[in-house]
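Regression report. Comparing outputs from two consecutive submissions.

Submission 1:
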Amino acid sequence: MNELTIRFATEADAATLHRLICDLAAYERQPDAVEVTVATLGEQLAQPRPPFECLLAEQDEQSLGFALFFPNYSTWQGKPGIYLEDLFVHPEHRRRGVGLALMSDLSRLAIDRGCARLEWAVLDWNEPSLAFFESIGAQGMDAWRLFRLTAAPLVQLSTAHPRA
């Protein structure tokens, strides 16, 4: 068995990334929620400034997992940060250091980029992930609640205050 490698995803990895995203959606009990296509991912990864970056974990030419992320910013610290949108390791490859390798590389990247923090959200029912993140020293932000606007409410709010 070859060594685990972590590398940045490229346009050529769009189909692999799409498969991993679909696998994540199935794991998170929403297998029909994925709307993004292989073509869209490929186009986005090919942009000079893609809307996201992604690390792929591979071993023996097999994709084991991924970490998809993008920049955020701390107004209080005046520094950039990284928001981890998704971290996923196939269940059959868990407890082998794959998630730790992805998080370690992402943490190094944050430090190299002068980031103040690395943040993410975890589903409250996902006990294995919660335990993993706590084991690496992450702290839950219990005083903060995640909010989201999508679809009709997003459109409705966009027209709530007309501009001249």
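Submission 2:
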Amino acid sequence: MATEILMPALSPTMEEGVIVKWFIKEGDKVSAGDLLAEIETDKATMELEAIDDGIVGELIYKEGVESIKINTPIAIIYELGEEGVEDKKVKSLKSQTDTKDNITIPMKNTLASQRIEDKKEKYLNHEKPETKGPRIASSPLAKRIAAENDIDLSTVKGSGPRGRVIKTDVESTIASLSSSLPRKNLTLDHSTKSHTDRDFEKIPVDGLRKIIASRLTEAKSTVPHFYLRQSINVDNLLRVRSIINLDQESHGIKLSINDFIIKASALALKQIPDANVIWANDHLKKFNTSDISVAVTVEGGLMTPVIFDAETKSLSKISNEMKSLSTRAKERKLTPNEYQGGSFSISNLGMYEIEDFDAIINPPQSAILAVGQAIKKPIVNQSGTELSIATIMKVTLSVDHRAIDGALGSELLSQIRHNLENPELMLALN
């Protein structure tokens, strides 16, 4: 029996994928667990494995083809010993054209022929060609905008990979025809139209950037943010960190300020458990563990790998995990279970000399801590009689007001501050 291999959904946000590389070719025998392909998702590049033994009948899509929707057939595998299937080479179900007339599959067995005819018909129905002319490589959004504005895609020059027509190409064409098109038919936004007479470079947007844009637009549009700010004296933290790093240098341990922030936040969520929640429309989900997402800069955007059970881990273990996750995030090698989940995020821009900023909550989480640069500043002592110099780090907690009210959010942030200003206590809780 022929089995279709479908484009898998490798992450909750994935809608389409790209076949970066095939590890097989038509006619190959494969066993369960063999690598079939390398798939690029919106957030990572992952490997697709065979789940059964068989013979590769057809690779429907070539390497590099973009925008393959999830659950779309990308290959066909036959059972070993299936009638009408040669052991060393399986005939392709379709030729390289899109027309039914050109598909010829000589078969020795009538039943096997009928199976292939069924698969062929299903494939043709899936493609649903509207014309017999050459296919125009284009994104679904570009097709929709072109159809809404009566634009022939064959007249649009594509700027995407391999000449693929993307949204901006269609919009540029509409803009150039705007003087002759009725205004009601234009879907081009004002910001694009106002710059059509200026020199610019078209930069294709990859899947990660699309997901970032979608999720943060959703967050700012639907999540009622409020912001709490604190200034934290980190002199004691820097002293403790220096002692640990000097003592453990021979063991390859080098703690960062961010490692302490992760630990302090994780402990604070255990100490203020009512704040360790997310909004779930008709109820709150309250967690027993502190799973902390940490924003990592990667090419083209951000990823947020998760330190799970961070409240139970030592600073050195958090440090080692974070280094590994950051490296693999930059290489787009994280697995979904390494960046999914978490109820709290940390975004640190201190290394970029940013003093303070407001971060956008990462749905469905309820809070994110924005961390600025630690800077030496004059401070007044508690009695108000003397000035001294201290290293101050400004932080801002962005909070989802649906799940956490102001008082509860203030408790959480105060506890984070307490933990950071008293790092010895965090060491005692390891």
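Expected: both submissions complete independently.
Actual: both completed, but the second showed a warning that disappeared on reload.
Relevant detail on submission 2: The chain has three domains: 2-127, 140-204, 209-428.
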